[in-house]
Amino acid sequence: MDNIAGQKSSLTWAVHISVVVLVVLWLLPTVGLLVSSFRSADQIATTGWWKSLFPQEQNLVIRTERPDAQEFIDGVYVLEGNLFELGDAADGVVSVWGTSSREIDAYSAGETADLGDKGLLTIQANGDYRFENQSEFSGSRGQRVFMTAVSPPSFSLDNYRNVLFSNSSSSSMGKAFINTLTVSIPATIIPILIAAFAAYALAWMDFPGRALLVAFVVGLLVVPLQLALIPLLKLHLGVGIGKGYLGVWLAHTGFGLPLAIYLLRNYMVGLPKDIIENARVDGATEFQIFVKIILPLSFPALASFAIFQFLWTWNDLLVALVFLIDSSGDTTVMTRQIIELLGSKGGNWEILATAAFISITVPLIVFFAMQKYLVRGLLAGSVK
Amino acid sequence: MHPAIQGLVTIIFGVGGCVGYFYFSNIVLDKVLFPARGVHAGRNINRANLVRPWLFLFPALAALSLYLAYPVVETLRLSLTDRKLDGAFVGFANYSQMFSEEKFWEALSNNFLWLLVVPAMSTIFGLLVAQLTDRIKWGALAKSLIFMPMAISMVGASVIWKLVYDARPEGADQIGILNAVYIFFGGDTPQTWLTMPFWNNFFLMAVLIWIQTGFAMVILSAALRGVPEETVEAAIVDGANPFQIFFKIKMPQIMTTVVVVWTTITITVLKVFDIVFAMTNGQWETQVLANYMYDKLFRASDWGVGSAAAMIIMLMVSPILVWNVRNARKEMR
C-alpha cells in the first residue's frame, strides 16, 4: 500500500494476488466469448470453452467408408482411409477403440481386431485404418468404430466467415456493420461542431443569462432519453423525416449535446485568458479566435467527447430501435441484429459469440487506442 | 442511394452547413448589420457583441430545446391523455391504470433493488481496485483491463454474460462457467440462473456492475491520487496502519467524489434497458421501469401509460437533477 515507512511484504503479496484475482474475474467472461467465437458449434455445445485451450480427450463414433469403395488387392478385399477425415473431426491421437458401444476400449491403437466373418480391422494412432476381408464387403453402410482420441486445441475462423458474409438476412452481420458505421460517424461529428461553438460562447463571451444557460445544460445532462422517444417519434413522423438515418442522426445529436457542451465548456474555461484577450486586442474576430485558437487548444476535450459519442452511438440499441429501424429491416444495426439472434438462435452460440465479438471489436480498438482521452473526458465530465 | 454514401453526404452537408452558418452569420453581423465603421462604429461593435453569443448558441439551444426540453413537457402532456380517444385529456387515468398493474410494481421494486445494489457494488469494487492498484507496478495495465467493459455495449455484455450463465441438462458437460464452478464445488443439478425469481435480478445486476466498476475506478483513482501526501505521511508517522490510513485519512477526503460516482451510476441504473431487454425481456420477475415503458410504448402501443412510466423515471431522476444544477450554480459563482 503506502510504502513510505514500515513496508510489510505479506501485505504487498496480498495486494498483488487480489488484483490478479479481480482482473481475471473481470476478463473471464469476455475471454470466454472470444474463445467460443473460434470454436465450432459442436465443440461449444459439448465442452466448456476453458477446456478448449488444452488437448481434449473425446469419444468419437465414426463409420468406415461404405463397402462400394472397396478395392481388390492381392487376393483380399480392402477398405482404407483415415477416420478423422471421414468423421470430419479435428485430428487427434487415438488411444483405444472398439466396434461395439459396450466395449469402446476393446483394442488399443495399432492392434488388429478380428471381427469374424466381417474381416480384420486395424486402426493406427493417427486414425488411419485398414479393413480387409477374404470375401467381398456387403451392405450399404461402413463399419461403426468407437474411438477415444486426444485432440489438440483447434480453432478456426469459419464462424467469422459465416456470420460476416453469409447471405441469409437473419445472420448477416456484414450489412449491419456498415449500417452501424453509417449511424455513428455523422452522429459523432455533427454534435461536436455545434457543441464547440456553444461551449465557446458559454465559456468566453459575456452576456446576460449565461449562468442560467449553463444550469440548463447541466439539468439536461441527466434527463433520461426515454422521455424523448414518443414526442420525437411523433415529431419525426409529423414533419416527414420518418424512421431512418436522418432521424437517428438528429436524435443522437440532440441527446449528445448536453455532455458535449458541458465537457467542452469546462475545458475551454480553463484555457489561458491572456491568449484570448491578446488576440482580441490584436483585432481578431470572435470567429477567428474560435477557429484558430480555441479549437486547436481544445483538442483533448474534443477527442474525449468524440470517443464518448462514438462508443455511445455504436453501442446504442434503444435510439436505433425507435428512430431508425423500420419494418423492412434494411437499416438494422448490429446491436439489434444480436438481439434477433438471441431470440431466434438462442442456442447457437457459435453465431451469437461471433456476432457479438464483431460488434465489440471496434469499440475495443477505439478504447485501447484512445484510453488516455477517455479517462480525461470521464474526469472532466462527471458533475462535481 | 447507398446509406453509407448518404452518411458521407450528411457529414459534408452537416459539417459544411454548421461551419457555413457560423462563418456567414458572423460576417453578416459584422459587415452588414452592425458595421464597425462610420459614425456609429463604437455603438455597432457593442451591439454586435451583444448578439454574437446567441449566434454561437443558436443551433445548440435549438437542438437541446427540441430534443430534450420539449419532450419532457410533451411526455407529461401525453401521460395525461389517451391515444385511443384522439388524445383527449383523461387526467390521471393512465397513472391509476399503471398503479393497478402488478407488472408496474414489480418493475418499480426491481428498480429500487437495482438502485440499492448496483451503485453501491460498483463504487465499492471501483474503490477497491483504485486503492489496490495505486502503488503497484502493473497497476495501469490492471486498471485498463478492468476498465475495458466500459467500451462494450450492454447488448454485447448481455451475450457475454448469457454464456456465463448458460445451463446444460444434468449430467452433460456444462458450458456456462458459473454452472461449471457450481457443479465443481458440489452443486447437484445445474441451475438456470436467469429464471430463478428474485435472485435472477442479481445476475442481471452483475452485468451492469461489471461495466460500471471501471468508471468508478477511474474517477476514484484520480481522487485518491489527489489526496495530499502530507496527510498520509503524518498518519504513518503517528503509527496508523494501512486500513486506518484508508478509512480515516483518505476516505473523508474523497467523499465528494464518491458521491459524484454514486449519483452518476444511479442515473445509469435508472435508464437501464438493454441488459434486461436482451437477457430476460422482463420475464421471470425481472422487469424494470425502462423496459416496462418500452413494452407499453411499442408493444402495447399504449402511449398514455408508457408516458406515465417515463414520467416516473423522470421523477426519480429529478432529485439528482436539482442537486447537480445547484452545485453547478455554486461553482459558477
Automatic annotation (TrEMBL), chain A:
<keyword id="KW-1003">Cell membrane</keyword>
<feature type="domain" description="ABC transmembrane type-1">
    <location>
        <begin position="177"/>
        <end position="370"/>
    </location>
</feature>
<feature type="transmembrane region" description="Helical">
    <location>
        <begin position="245"/>
        <end position="264"/>
    </location>
</feature>
<keyword id="KW-1133">Transmembrane helix</keyword>
<keyword id="KW-0812">Transmembrane</keyword>
<feature type="transmembrane region" description="Helical">
    <location>
        <begin position="211"/>
        <end position="233"/>
    </location>
</feature>
<dbReference type="InterPro" id="IPR000515">
    <property type="entry name" value="MetI-like"/>
</dbReference>
<feature type="transmembrane region" description="Helical">
    <location>
        <begin position="289"/>
        <end position="311"/>
    </location>
</feature>
<dbReference type="InterPro" id="IPR035906">
    <property type="entry name" value="MetI-like_sf"/>
</dbReference>
<feature type="transmembrane region" description="Helical">
    <location>
        <begin position="351"/>
        <end position="370"/>
    </location>
</feature>
<protein>
    <submittedName>
        <fullName>Maltose ABC transporter membrane protein /trehalose ABC transporter membrane protein /sucrose ABC transporter membrane protein</fullName>
    </submittedName>
</protein>
<comment type="similarity">
    <text>Belongs to the binding-protein-dependent transport system permease family.</text>
</comment>
<feature type="transmembrane region" description="Helical">
    <location>
        <begin position="13"/>
        <end position="35"/>
    </location>
</feature>
<dbReference type="GO" id="GO:0055085">
    <property type="term" value="P:transmembrane transport"/>
</dbReference>
<dbReference type="GO" id="GO:0005886">
    <property type="term" value="C:plasma membrane"/>
</dbReference>
<feature type="transmembrane region" description="Helical">
    <location>
        <begin position="176"/>
        <end position="205"/>
    </location>
</feature>
<keyword id="KW-0813">Transport</keyword>
<keyword id="KW-0472">Membrane</keyword>
<dbReference type="Pfam" id="PF00528">
    <property type="entry name" value="BPD_transp_1"/>
</dbReference>
TrEMBL record, chain B:
<protein>
    <submittedName>
        <fullName>Maltose ABC transporter membrane protein /trehalose ABC transporter membrane protein /sucrose ABC transporter membrane protein</fullName>
    </submittedName>
</protein>
<keyword id="KW-1133">Transmembrane helix</keyword>
<dbReference type="InterPro" id="IPR035906">
    <property type="entry name" value="MetI-like_sf"/>
</dbReference>
<keyword id="KW-1003">Cell membrane</keyword>
<feature type="transmembrane region" description="Helical">
    <location>
        <begin position="145"/>
        <end position="164"/>
    </location>
</feature>
<feature type="transmembrane region" description="Helical">
    <location>
        <begin position="254"/>
        <end position="279"/>
    </location>
</feature>
<keyword id="KW-0813">Transport</keyword>
<keyword id="KW-0472">Membrane</keyword>
<dbReference type="Pfam" id="PF00528">
    <property type="entry name" value="BPD_transp_1"/>
</dbReference>
<dbReference type="GO" id="GO:0055085">
    <property type="term" value="P:transmembrane transport"/>
</dbReference>
<keyword id="KW-0812">Transmembrane</keyword>
<dbReference type="InterPro" id="IPR050809">
    <property type="entry name" value="UgpAE/MalFG_permease"/>
</dbReference>
<feature type="transmembrane region" description="Helical">
    <location>
        <begin position="6"/>
        <end position="29"/>
    </location>
</feature>
<feature type="transmembrane region" description="Helical">
    <location>
        <begin position="202"/>
        <end position="224"/>
    </location>
</feature>
<feature type="transmembrane region" description="Helical">
    <location>
        <begin position="50"/>
        <end position="70"/>
    </location>
</feature>
<feature type="domain" description="ABC transmembrane type-1">
    <location>
        <begin position="108"/>
        <end position="324"/>
    </location>
</feature>
<dbReference type="GO" id="GO:0005886">
    <property type="term" value="C:plasma membrane"/>
</dbReference>
<feature type="transmembrane region" description="Helical">
    <location>
        <begin position="303"/>
        <end position="325"/>
    </location>
</feature>
<feature type="transmembrane region" description="Helical">
    <location>
        <begin position="112"/>
        <end position="133"/>
    </location>
</feature>
<comment type="similarity">
    <text>Belongs to the binding-protein-dependent transport system permease family.</text>
</comment>
<dbReference type="InterPro" id="IPR000515">
    <property type="entry name" value="MetI-like"/>
</dbReference>
